[in-house]
Amino acid sequence: MLERLLALALVAAALAACERDTAGTAAAIEADVAAIEAVNARILGALNAGDWARLNELTHDEYVAIINGRPIAGRERLEASNQGFLEQWQDEEAWLPDETVVDGDLAFQRGSFTMTLTPRQSGGEPRALEGTYLHIYQRKAGRWELTRAMAETAGE
């Protein structure tokens, strides 16, 4: 009988440890997702403010984007693309995540986006767009960074 009680106590202790570990893991993942959302907020803040210099500062050196099937890679090309885009358009953009999955120092986020582009100089009509995206994040030196992005505009 004593052996049986001891075995039950050990099983209960193991289950309690698993529950604590799961709760700790869930809290860590929630913190990672919040940190990724903060990365997104900083990037969107620069985009929506038209601040291409700030956007370039926030963009990781290894960042690669594929926008509507067209790749943008390399620091010089990326910076020129950011500058050219934000000098041509006033961007009002929102990212609407459907899921964010964190696995160690890698994470991905899948979702949809909306954007309204208003020409800065031609005085043309605003253009409303929507589409889907997939972002890849890496934790580097303890900080989350957006390092890869794919976006596809609906209907284009």
Structural account:
This protein has a single domain (about 1-155), classed as Roll (Nuclear Transport Factor 2, Chain: A), CATH 3.10.450.50. Helices cover about 45% and strands about 40% of the residues. The chain is built from 3 helices and 6 strands, in the order ααββαββββ. It has helices at about 1-50, 50-60, 75-90, and strands at about 65, 70-75, 90-105, 105-120, 125-140, 145-155. α1 packs antiparallel against α2 and α2 (about 50-60) runs antiparallel to α3. The chain starts with a helix and ends with a strand.
Q: What's the helix count?
A: 3
Q: How many strands, what sense, and barrel or not for the largest sheet?
A: 6 strands, mixed
CATH structural fold name: Nuclear Transport Factor 2, Chain: A
Bin the helical content.
Answer: 40-55%
Count every beta strand, where a strand is a DSSP E run of 2 or more residues. Answer: 6
Distance between the termini: 72 Å
Summarize model confidence as the mean pLDDT. Answer: 88
Structural class per helix/strand content? alpha+beta
CATH-scheme architecture = Roll
